[in-house]
Design brief:
35% helix; two-stranded antiparallel sheet; alpha/beta; globular; six-stranded mixed beta sheet; Rossmann fold; 8 strands
């Protein structure tokens, strides 16, 4: 109630201010979105890839298989490197396995005792003549700028195809060494999956397949000063089993219709 004779001051800017504050609150909530992690950005139209369906793997008995990658392929943190997953994988499946792992190496990053993936592929023996190549990794590129990454990957893959034109190639993406998965590692996983799909290559994603979760993290990863977030001996055995399962699924005959879903960690374009 206003006193007689007093003027009621009109404030036409109040509704405008209220509306602006409401809009700001909505925008802030949309930007915050606690249910969306940094590792899951919205894909743009430029990210669209024309996928090519991969062919089932046809391997001879006791095939020669090159397992190429970083410290995980090397066997770091296993009691001895020969207990690493790449060696166990060959034993489990009866392969003539050739293991080429260099600690710290990546598509862009030179390793501790070897070069980057491109330098190492150039040094491979042309007479090796593998039936299958499993190219793993690499989380070692996660600290480097994303710019130029896809070009480096493309160059490595082209060189590998040129050196071993008769080999089937399977890409094994990075596995998380820490949880939650670092956004840069998730970006590498997406980039590799996309590039493999464009070539019609099989892609195995330990991230998409939830190979390493909070439930089994300490059983798989050695977080001590020696292990430094690499797979333990038991962890390497576990990874060998998971990779073997994926490879078997790619090679086993199937009566499943072409558009039936596969396990999430195995990406068939």
């Amino acid at each position: 109630m206003h006193a007689p004779g007093s003027l009621r001051v009109r404030r036409p800017w109040l509704p405008v201010l209220g509306a602006a504050l409401a809009i700001a609150a909505v925008c802030a909530l949309g930007m915050w979105r606690p249910w969306v992690t940094p590792s899951a950005p919205v894909a743009s139209e430029a990210d669209t890839v024309v996928a090519v369906a991969p062919a089932m793997l046809e391997l001879p008995d006791a095939p020669r298989v090159l397992v190429f990658g970083d410290s995980w392929v090397y066997g770091s943190a296993a009691t001895i490197p020969a207990l690493g997953f790449a060696y166990r994988l060959g034993e489990n499946l009866g392969w003539d396995a050739v293991v080429d792992g260099v600690r710290g190496s990546g598509y862009l990053k030179p390793g501790i005792d070897g070069g980057s993936y491109g330098e190492r592929v150039a040094a491979l023996d042309p007479a090796l003549d593998p039936d299958l190549i499993i190219l793993e990794g690499s989380i070692n590129d996660r600290r480097l700028p994303a710019e130029g990454y896809t070009d480096a990957v493309t160059a490595v893959w082209n060189a590998l195809e040129s050196r071993y034109p008769d080999a089937a190639i399977v890409i094994l993406g990075p596995a998380p060494q820490v949880l939650p998965v670092e956004s840069a590692t998730a970006r590498i996983d997406r980039d590799l999956a996309s590039l493999a799909a464009a070539r019609g290559w099989w892609y195995i994603s330990p991230i998409a397949g939830d190979w390493i979760t909070e439930a089994n993290y300490l059983d798989v990863i050695d977080i001590g000063p020696v292990g430094r977030n690499h797979p333990s001996t038991d962890g390497h055995a576990y990874l060998a089993e998971r990779v073997a399962e994926a490879i078997i699924e790619m090679t086993a005959p199937t009566d499943v219709v072409a558009d039936a879903p596969l396990d999430e960690e195995i990406v068939a374009p």
